[in-house]
Amino acid sequence: MNRLQNDAALHRGKQTGKNTMTKLDKTDLMILQALQNDAKTSMKTLADALHLSKTPVYERIRRLEKEGIIKRYVALVDPEKIGLPLVVFCNVSLAIHDEEHIRQFRETIGTIDEITECYTIGGIHDFFLKVVVKDLQAYDRFVLEKLTKIRGIAKMQSSFVLNEIKHTTALKPVENG
Amino acid sequence: MNRLQNDAALHRGKQTGKNTMTKLDKTDLMILQALQNDAKTSMKTLADALHLSKTPVYERIRRLEKEGIIKRYVALVDPEKIGLPLVVFCNVSLAIHDEEHIRQFRETIGTIDEITECYTIGGIHDFFLKVVVKDLQAYDRFVLEKLTKIRGIAKMQSSFVLNEIKHTTALKPVENG
DNA sequence: ATTGAAAAAAGTCGCGG
DNA sequence: CCGCGACTTTTTTCAAT
């Protein structure tokens, strides 16, 4: 039953290194674009579109995965359809910002499902969170029961999303010119 | 060559409606969790983990897709590996906020690759953008050449991300109790 | 609704140009 | 690097329970 819990994304081995800046040619870019749009695009479809056979497409994809350019394949679910229509952006400042508090803050962040993104913005003790919840009441509970359980939080400022206009996971690689 | 450009994600038909609140049982939740973690998890793997055969798993996934709960399957690429390491959050206010300007703003947003997310936050003429670019110079060019090309922008405030601590696309559905 | 088998499609890989 | 072709795995369908 716990194979489902695995970290996955390593279904064909991965790279942890951040370098190995390999060139991406036009074909790679089109493959990336297609798979970012629809991960289930078959190799035959890609091959036909690129006027190639399956082998080069297969090997390019394999290479993109191996080099960690393609990090993983995921299913995207509709937040509204699963009862999570409210998005909140939230600034959090830590009062006590010794290494231990910061380390613990980061660790805890990773375990809280409602927090989908977390960044440091303006200094080592300033965090910026994207939070996805059911409604305002759920957000209130999230703050009280989860966020403030983390020791050392000084200030908090929440911005509630009224409407989502655009949301994509697709990135267009920079031209390597 | 242009099949790659298609909007896709409709590879098995989709729903546009926002309702049809169907109950998700434990099995559905585990399937969703697994596919959000790794879209390539095979049905046999899922079936084994759930102590079922492939068919019910297949039918459940099909249903989740049909109802739009699973919106699409995508490949996630590593921004750093494709030369886009800088994330900027940006508040934009419109000066002129008649319907026509707002409509055009929204339309233009959708065509700009650097903008991965856009929300309305604090009123109808207040937008919040997530922007992904190569470096500060590229951000400057983005603002000058793309953002301010949109007529009617009054104020702008940018926050630069120093470090990404968490970033997931996986959502945990609310308990249907 | 679930099973198990079987057909169809997709992915994988060695070999030759 | 690419194409061909054989082999493996996965997806999809379906008759029967």
From TrEMBL, chains A, B:
Domain spans labelled HTH asnC-type: 24-85
The organism's place on the tree of life at top rank: Bacteria
InterPro entries: ArsR-like_HTH, AsnC-type_HTH_dom, Dimeric_a/b-barrel, Tscrpt_reg_AsnC-like, Tscrpt_reg_AsnC/Lrp_C, WH-like_DNA-bd_sf, WH_DNA-bd_sf
SMART domains: HTH_ASNC (SM00344)
Keyword Glycosyltransferase: no
Pfam families: AsnC_trans_reg, HTH_24
Ubl conjugation among keywords: no
Annotated keywords: DNA-binding, Transcription, Transcription regulation
Protein's name in the database: Lrp/AsnC family transcriptional regulator
Organism: Oxalobacter aliiformigenes
Upper lineage: Bacteria, Pseudomonadati, Pseudomonadota, Betaproteobacteria, Burkholderiales
